[in-house]
């Protein structure tokens, strides 16, 4: 809640429209990245319980968060990173328009770092011209 109060954005919990069941969380948050020369930037975060993998939830949630961040939020760019072996997460980032930049250490583990600028993102790319974004 402190991040929301300080920056006006953060993470959302997402629920299935029909069942109301929790299907994951996603959003944008400021991060300090000492492994990237001490850079501080907004990062896209998303997580989906394994029983919901391969249903498009991560892509849809992340797309909604990016639409808010680049739209009303006016962010100049967003980073995202994952473990080198997390190929599904890398595919989500690439589908959204993120481009691989470098490998770095985050939270004591190796990660692959991707970056996205507003011109590289279009919700239409991920198949939904009007992604549902929590109000």
- Strand order, main sheet: write it out: 1-2-3
Element-level helix/strand string: HEEEHEHEE
Distance between the termini: 16 Å
Q: Strand portion, in percent? A: 25-35%
Shape: globular
CATH class descriptor name: Alpha Beta
Total helical elements: 3
General description of the model:
This protein is an alpha+beta fold and 135 residues long. The protein has one domain: Aminopeptidase. It is 22% helix and 35% strand. It is built from 3 helices and 6 strands. The strands form 2 sheets. The chain has a 3-stranded antiparallel β-sheet with strand order 1-2-3, covered by helices on one side. A 3-stranded antiparallel β-sheet has the order 4-6-5. A hairpin with a 6-residue loop joins strand 1 and strand 2. Helix 2 packs across helix 3. The longest helix has 14 residues. The chain is globular and about 45 Å long.
Topology:
Blueprint: H1 2-7, E1 11-15, E2 22-33, E3 39-47, H2 57-70, E4 78-82, H3 87-96, E5 99-106, E6 109-116
Provide key terms for this protein:
135 residues; alpha+beta; Aminopeptidase; 3-stranded antiparallel beta sheet; 3 helices; 22% helix; disordered C terminus
């Amino acid at each position: 809640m402190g991040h929301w109060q300080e920056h006006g954005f953060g993470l959302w919990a997402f629920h299935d429209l029909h069942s109301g069941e929790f299907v994951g969380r996603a959003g944008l948050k400021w991060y300090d990245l000492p492994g990237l020369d001490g850079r501080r930037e907004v990062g896209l975060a998303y997580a989906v319980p394994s029983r919901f993998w391969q249903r498009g939830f991560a892509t849809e949630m992340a797309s909604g968060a990016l639409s808010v961040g680049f739209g009303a939020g006016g962010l100049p760019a967003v980073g995202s990173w994952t473990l080198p072996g997390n190929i599904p997460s890398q595919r989500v980032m690439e589908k959204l328009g993120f481009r691989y930049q470098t490998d770095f250490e985050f939270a004591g583990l190796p990660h692959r770092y991707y970056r996205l600028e507003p011109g590289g993102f279009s919700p239409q790319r991920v198949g939904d011209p009007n992604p549902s974004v929590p109000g």
